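This section describes the prediction task in plain terms. A model, or a person checking by hand, is given the sequence of a single protein chain and must write out its three-dimensional structure as a string of tokens. No templates, partner chains or ligands are provided. The sample shown here is typical of the held-out split.
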Amino acid sequence: MEYITLTKSNFDHEVLMSDRPVLVDFWASWCAPCRGLAPTIDEIAREQEQVKVGKVNVDEEPELAQRYRIMSIPTLIFFKDGELVQREAGGKSKGEILEMIGLLRQTAR
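The expected answer:
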């Protein structure tokens, strides 16, 4: 599955009302660490069917960035049952992200 481009008009439906845990990547096109992380996020979106993956471009969606107090990018936020469960700023390896997703899935049991 591919990632979902999140906007203020679809965020609540796609993330807060999702029946699956959601990984949200807050990023910007000018951000080198964001560009470095993008292939990893895309790969996870394709491989992990039990987790929905969405991206928020902070330049195009400043209200969402403000709503979640994004101070640095990239920032990854994990949601489960509409609740913010974990947030991580900065570049992460695929293993680190999968570990966080794994921890998130354990809380679902």
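For orientation: The radius of gyration is 13 Å.
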